[in-house]
Amino acid sequence: MGSGVDSFPLSGKCGRGRAGFTMIELSVSVAVLVTVLLASMQGNLSAQRLSSDAIETQRAVRVMEAARALLEDADVADVADVGGAVEPGLALNLVGVLDGQSVVYSLPDWVPGTPVPSPLGVRLTLTWTSGLGQARSYSVLDAVR
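Request: output the structure for the sequence above.
Response:
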């Protein structure tokens, strides 16, 4: 019979040839590929959401700058005048660049019937609806001279 050394080839291959990958190797590689693709897509969606928020915030800042300019062009007495061209507590008439945009100002440090101080403290509050349907607001405390 022999020693049995001749029954196995020296190349390490069994009797049948092993060309290609096993089903387990293919399954693991597909699972890794799917995980990487899903993570990439999630990162892309997060980046788009952040970009959209940044654009909305830039628009909000521009709206607030326009509101501040409107109040700065007005006289202090007009800003404090209930029933005047601009009135505390009512929305300012500005071009709407944000969904559901409303800009309201209040006079937190002044009580009607008392002398109007100069400078007059004014709180501007912008509210709008984000692209995702969430209510957002931005508030600034300023002074009108």
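The radius of gyration is 34 Å.
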